[in-house]
């Protein structure tokens, strides 16, 4: 297992990129620590698969270096980098049995026969595939095939990292949960470096210790699931994570106050050198309904069982609030924001609020 | 295998740019294989073109890689002789008739094979295919008798019908492949939405397999256009195909070699035009809808 | 896809059935009829039972034609299938050159068969053709109208020229349907070029290759026009394959009974071979669904 360093990686699919928009990956500097479980989260086309393929060596980056444990591997082939990758659609060798599928990467590397057998048997037991070992791979279900693909990575005990490219896309919902927890278990037991690409926030947040959120070819935030939720560094993270996403209100900052239409909202702290237009970000979970605050109209209520989402109209601006299932809705609701849930964004980036002195 | 790979497929293609690492460059000579093959394909056609622009005395008198005395006489003679150009019209007439006929009757049959199981379906399908296997030479003589007895001898429709023998099985086979690629839920949704079968079939289903219909028509055109034995046997004067007119000239003596070459060039042109129009569907079409 | 059982589907098949039956069954009955009778001109026929059949099966001439036919068919299959696969593997997958390659390669498939014969006749003429001139120029004594070996060589090269593209197009269609992830996984697993071909490309091409072999087998077994125009079955009988012999007997000698019996035997041979291919192909498809 290895630490993976990305140093000023840029990539474009065009032969001669000129403007910034030509780059699928704008600029990525990041380190995946040895033994960490990372998720690369972002919408389709944000460059996360590109980044994954650069790590695995399927793509050569236009610019920048890639280091495994400090060693420059940018110009090494996929095989020399010794990584494993599980793809979106299960890739199995149809004509081979499950056993032969797992043995394939070892045979290609000229591992001695009895060593292959030992490792394949071990991996078969690990992935619960022992029962189907002698079956042909083509007739198996999607989740078993995906396990075979994973097994082909695990069978090489010396892989530097295991990469996952949306591996649960074609798996039935109830199997998704099971596969994911098995993966967690394997990770805890063997501690390999894992990078998991997904556009599903639940998958990312439940799988990874550290989530890397990507947007339009850039990393916009790296953090624990908690940090992403409480302190989104970018308005995109606020919008993309959470359901519904973060409320964003256009405001004018004036000292420790934000002016929203005719109303003034008190900020929990001051911001230095911010004046004028900005955006106030408040998660629906921190929107409070009561007798005081901004007057609001209720547009509609979605009952989600354990909680309710109330869609409000405040100063012509749509706003979501989350209420517990037992909380009542005031007849003439007014809106306030819990101070710990207020974030301020200028040009989409979060600005820290300093405690009022 | 599903094909909606989306993001992954579009991005992960190693671009053929100059920045690839050395390991990929060993493939860089692969272009030579198709190039040499195409060269091999084009040489005889070039020679045909070359001959068609030469006057007879040059063909017989000297050997040259290109026409020394370039002439269009051979083509001029063809276009001024009604026997020749009527040959073209005859050929195209029965080819188009056969194409329409084959596709129209094969559509419902292919639908039945792709959607339903019925008594004897597998045997019927195989029996249809056996007709694709029947050597036309076997049928030449009985065809003459059959079509003479129903009074269709030497008509376009006779050739069009006779070519159905091998084109319909092929059309059913190809269309069945494309139709099986359309999920059955499409049919069921349409019925729930209150579509009658004919309306569903023409308004919803046929547009979905439009490329399949195109490919089928292409194959029918191809096999009807290139076939000569039956077309020649079933016609004498009235509906004589171009290919048959050509055999009149195909003596190896060399006297008419220039004109034979010109006629050959002219028979290649309709095929070339058809290929050009379907060029973007060829690869997918040959996969016959499901692989 | 699960299919519903519905015998009304027969109505959809009826038009096809009527047309094909008209074209296939009536002539086939005619042929069967001839094959068991003796005719002495006019309309006088005598029932002869299996006389023609035993005569055909015992005739040296039929066996020789069948032998030539089998040699021809298996030679061209042995050349065209591997060559076609090789060319398909080397073709570009994307870009403008794909269309150019496909259009040029498909061209021979759309040339009328007698024109194919004529093209090769002109191309291979020992004195006037490019091929003949070049071969004679570099020291071969080449003349396909006089020497059996040369006639065979020309016939086979012509068929390779004419039909390899069909195999290429089918194999190529199979290849481009393979998702990129398979190649990427193979790279990660450290697979060699051969292993990629053996375990990824070949299995995915299996179905289209079966179709290619089936089509090429059927069509090469009934080849008539091209050799007829090119060599006329000669020199001597050296390139007289089954169809040419059949037409010679039926139209040349007007030996209807014998020609009909030969037709039936000929047809049955094609049928049996094709049935074997067909069942193999269907079994492969069944495996895929289980």
Automatic annotation (TrEMBL), chain A:
One of its GO terms (molecular function) is ATP binding. Residues 9-241 form the ABC transporter domain. Gene3D superfamilies: 2.40.50.100, Nucleic acid-binding proteins, P-loop containing nucleotide triphosphate hydrolases. Pfam families: ABC_tran, OB_MalK. Keywords: ATP-binding, Cell membrane, Membrane, Nucleotide-binding, Transport. InterPro entries: AAA+_ATPase, ABC_transporter-like_ATP-bd, ABC_transpr_FbpC, ABC_transpr_MalK/UgpC-like, Mo/tungstate-bd_C_term_dom, NA-bd_OB-fold, OB_MalK-like, P-loop_NTPase. It comes from the Bacteria. Belongs to the ABC transporter superfamily. PANTHER family: ABC TRANSPORTER ATP-BINDING PROTEIN, MALTODEXTRIN IMPORT ATP-BINDING PROTEIN MSMX. This is ABC transporter ATP-binding protein.
From TrEMBL, chain C:
SUPFAM superfamilies: MetI-like. The chain crosses the membrane at residues 12-36, 70-89, 96-123, 160-183, 208-225, 259-280. The keyword Nucleotidyltransferase does not apply. It is a multi-pass membrane protein. It is found in: Cell membrane. Keywords: Membrane, Transmembrane, Transmembrane helix, Transport. The keyword Lipoprotein does not apply. Residues 66-277 form the ABC transmembrane type-1 domain. Belongs to the binding-protein-dependent transport system permease family. This is Sugar ABC transporter permease. It comes from Aquibaculum arenosum.
